[in-house]
Write a structure and sequence with these properties.
This protein is 32% helix and 14% strand. It is α+β, with helices and mostly antiparallel strands. Mean pLDDT is 71; it is low at 1-52, 405-464 and 468-535.
């Protein structure tokens, strides 16, 4: 057990005072303890208590001043780190103890270079949105920011949550009852309703981001990809968000003006997954993902294509229409759940309704009703167990390596990279995060790359991306119907070759799929170019 950054005891340990974020210019204060920091065009006042030894570093204030306004940095030595409990794309998450209170918390270590402006803005967005959402029973509680004086590291402090839905669903012997599924889904929709009514789209709803505590309370976590949205749909956003298996068709088709429907689609996938016990749309590439969606949900109508005019509409359009098969596929499940799945998995996002609509649906209003969270089973502490298993594996590996060394077969010792157990190996297809593609391509060690913020607005989806196939015409053929594409050279804007490796990877991925019979390639794969430009 060690202190996060230093073991020095500070008698003036401070708690975080999270006041409402000031979005407007505050220059009226006359207190000498206040500093005015220019953030873009609007200066923001950061209030500091006289004599407070901790100040936000200038590099952080310059780009995240608005997100941090009214927030007091917490001292690193107010927490003691216990163990690593998870790692994500740009962070490692630790279980820690708040020294003053003895309370267990989760701290998310975010590390980046001070000059990475985009990365800092990315993190600032997460803080800003978490603060906007405030205290809600179904949103993970954000408790402040710890700054390191010695390294350029930041820690976001959260309440500690013992489990996540993906982990629980994957535990051997798990078989959720209908009231239990309703209980989790009710909490998910309540949390989503709160996000959406506060103008926040989560954009990465999946089981591993739904944390659950020992009281059975489910909280939506990981707002790293979340964004403010304009309900009128006037503001363009990147379509390269949401983990592939939970990604709505309009995103796969390149929509940049989307709304709450994308989170509702993901929620529909989760509901179906909880009922069936496995992910329902486990595509390996964006092309395959769309194909799976169309097979389950039916291919979009002409009205849909005309109404939405989606950028990739001409690339993958089923030649023969698929019939919608949700009712048939889920026929053995309760009809109120199938109706809700059917609504949430509507191809047209406007037909999915809202989280509030879902809460009013028959699924929740008919018997058996959702159970109380407190009546849910008490699960064993999975994170600690996982951590122990990890340590044990590492210890055994070390011993193996030692004996290997004796025989003269030296292998480099390295701590194992660990990711929290998931129900299934979800492809990390948060396409907004290029580090994911890099990881998939080169199996990058998590501790070196995953602690970095990825530059927002860049693309890194796994597999064949629909806008990366320049000059190669696709047609993917299923057993019963085929999808064709027009030759879209010139339609997708300028492409450039990014690297020999990624070029070859894309080619080999396409060839792989072609060999598997899912994708037919016309044109010359040698001409394939890979674009790294954001859309
Ligand atoms: N408050 C918390 N309590 C307990 N565990 C947590 C908490 N927050 C995060 N974790 C664990 O850490 C993991 C990574 O956290 P998080 O998803 O926030 O990071 P990320 O870098 O955005 O990850 P990802 O790449 O999965 O999007 C989670 O899957 C979860 O297991």
């Amino acid at each position: 057990m060690g202190c996060i950054l230093s073991t020095k005891t500070d008698t003036r340990r401070r708690r975080c005072h999270d006041q409402p974020t000031t979005t407007t210019t505050t220059t009226t204060t006359t207190s000498s303890a206040a500093s005015v920091v220019a953030v873009g065009t609007s200066p923001v006042t950061i209030t500091r208590s006289p004599g407070d030894p901790l100040e936000w570093p200038p590099w952080l204030l310059a780009f995240a001043g608005k997100a941090l306004a009214g927030l007091t940095p917490r001292r690193a030595d107010s927490f003691k780190k216990l163990s690593k409990i998870g790692s994500g794309t740009y962070s490692n998450v630790y279980k820690a103890i708040e020294v003053e209170t003895g309370r267990v918390v989760a701290i998310k270590k975010v590390r980046f270079e001070a000059e990475e402006k985009e990365s800092i803005r990315f993190m600032a967005r997460e803080i800003e949105l978490l603060r906007r959402l405030g205290d809600h029973p179904n949103i993970v509680k954000f408790e402040g920011v710890v700054v390191s004086r010695v390294s350029q590291a930041l820690y976001l402090v959260f309440e500690y949550m013992e489990h996540d839905l993906a982990g629980l669903a994957a535990a051997p012997g798990t078989n959720f009852s209908e009231p239990q599924i309703k209980c989790y889904m009710k909490q998910l929709f309540t949390g989503l309703e709160h996000c959406h009514s506060h103008g926040v789209l989560h954009r990465d709803i999946k089981g591993s981001n739904l944390l659950i505590n020992n009281e059975g309370i489910l909280k939506i976590a990981d707002f790293g990809l979340a964004a403010s949205f304009d309900p009128a749909g006037k503001q363009a956003m990147t379509s390269r968000v949401v983990t592939l298996w939970y990604r709505a068709p309009e995103l796969l088709l390149g929509s940049t003006r989307y709304g709450v429907g994308i989170d509702l689609w993901s929620a529909g996938c989760i509901l179906a997954e909880l009922l069936t016990g496995k992910p329902i749309l486990p595509g390996r590439t964006e092309v395959e993902q769309l194909h799976r969606i169309f097979k389950l949900c039916g291919s979009p109508s002409d009205k849909y294509w005309k109404k939405w005019k989606l950028p990739h509409a001409t690339i993958v359009k089923p030649q023969q229409p698929y019939e919608r098969s949700i009712a048939d596929i889920f026929k053995e499940y309760p009809s109120s759940s199938v109706s809700l799945i059917d609504k949430l998995l509507s191809i047209d996002p406007l037909d999915r309704g809202t989280a509030a609509d879902a809460l009013k649906s028959d699924f929740f209003t008919t018997k058996p009703h959702a159970c109380e969270p407190s009546s849910l089973p008490k699960y064993p502490p999975s994170k600690e167990m996982d951590a122990k298993l990890r340590e044990e594996k590492f210890r055994r590996q070390k011993e193996l390596d030692k004996s290997g060394n004796k025989r003269g077969t030296f292998r480099k010792q390295r701590a194992p990279h660990y990711r929290q157990s998931k129900a299934v190996p979800v492809p990390e297809a948060n396409a907004e995060l290029p580090v994911n593609l890099h990881r998939q391509m080169f199996h990058v060690n998590g501790t070196s790359k995953s602690e970095k913020f990825p530059p927002p607005h860049q693309d890194g989806g796994v597999g064949v991306k629909l806008d990366n196939l320049n000059g190669v015409s696709l047609s993917f053929v299923a057993n019963d119907a085929s999808f064709t594409s027009e030759d879209f050279e010139g339609k997708m804007g300028k492409s450039r070759k990014v690297s020999h490796d990624s070029h070859n990877l894309m080619k080999s991925l396409m060839l792989d799929i072609a060999r598997s019979g899912r994708l037919h390639m016309k044109g010359n794969p040698k001409e394939l170019k890979v674009s790294s430009e954001a859309k």
